[in-house]
Specification:
three-stranded antiparallel β-sheet, five-stranded mixed β-sheet, single chain, alpha+beta
Length: 323
């Protein structure tokens, strides 16, 4: 197992923070105040009349964000005490209280506690999102495991039932393996790796055979979350084509092309040779999935229910792709 580096430990500290009200959180708050004081002393060498509390605001923010509201409050109180004693004239004395100094101190506390409140709320939201992401990963992993188990069960049943029909079994086996590979590919794409656009199309359409699908376009690599979303859209299009469209008969085919179009990559899915198409009376879940999945990523997809075959025109954002 690799030893954690200082950078990785700092990243975990920023992401997860310290337990609120713990000795570690309070010690971290004091450390932030010490760092702010040293910085203020360094500034004092060249600018003795600088604002006394200026360097303590970042210290309070960091203490509250990492250690919670109590740690931020401790940092604010200690900052006020140290700054008043060391940097507010007359220095090294806390007996002389001018009205201007009291107003400055009151404004400092107002700003400090506003910072603490915002940082603590942001900290809670970030931790909740972190928990939700961990939960999502567990659910996705469990779902992927269940899908694999179901495919394995279907594989075993068909192999037993078709043991006397070798040609039929070989065709079904290839499609089942292609479906399993596509599921594995989609799970890998969830990790945010870069994936060639053509590979996504090939993986999703492999169960239906390559002879009836033509693809035209240059090398385009998708990155971020776009590969997994695009894969879902293509999977839905292919499933619909196999049930009702060009791949449901013997003579149908699909033409897929893509090209760079300004800030986007334009993709066209065009079916022909299948049963006549009639527009649906209402939008189904699959249609909504196709037309809305790319919206959050500044992309789009539009279905055209032409009589000769469905046409889907998609635009993928180039900001999340690289040629």
């Amino acid at each position: 197992m690799d030893k954690p580096t200082a950078g990785s430990r700092f990243g975990r500290l920023v992401q997860h923070g310290l337990p609120p009200r713990s000795p570690a959180a309070l010690s971290f708050a004091l450390l932030c105040v010490v760092a702010a004081t040293l910085l203020r002393l360094a500034i004092d060498v060249i600018a003795p009349d600088a604002v006394p509390y200026a360097t303590y605001f970042p210290a309070i923010l960091i203490a509250a964000f990492i250690g919670g509201g109590v740690a931020g409050t401790v940092a604010a109180l200690m900052s006020a005490l140290v700054a008043w004693y060391l940097f507010v004239p007359p220095r090294a004395s806390m007996m002389y209280l001018r009205p201007d100094d009291l107003v400055s101190l009151a404004l400092f506390f107002f700003a400090a506690f506003a910072i603490i409140w915002v940082a603590d709320r942001y900290r809670r939201v970030l931790r909740r999102l972190d928990e939700e992401e961990a939960y999502r990963q567990v659910v996705v992993a469990d779902l992927s495991h269940r899908v694999k188990n179901k495919l394995a069960t279907v594989y075993a049943i068909l192999r037993h039932e078709l043991r006397g029909h070798r040609d039929v079994w070989q065709s079904a086996e290839g499609r089942l393996r292609a479906l399993s590979a596509a599921d594995d590919f989609l799970a890998a794409a969830e990790d945010g790796h870069s994936v060639p656009l053509a590979q996504i199309l090939e993986m999703e359409l492999a169960p239906y055979g390559n002879a009836r699908v033509s693809m035209t376009g240059g090398p385009v690599v998708l990155a971020g979350k776009v590969p997994s979303v695009f894969s879902l859209v293509v999977h839905e299009l292919a499933t619909n084509a196999a049930k009702y469209g060009a791949l449901s008969g013997e003579s149908g085919s699909i033409d897929i092309s893509w090209r760079e179009d300004g800030e986007h990559v334009a993709v066209e899915w065009k079916e022909r040779g299948g049963p006549p198409v009639t527009p649906p009376q209402k939008r189904s879940f699959g249609t909504s999935l196709i037309e809305r999945s790319l919206d959050p990523f500044k992309g789009s997809a539009h279905l055209d229910f032409a009589p000769e075959g469905i046409v889907c025109r998609m635009r993928l954002p180039r900001a999340l792709s690289a040629a």
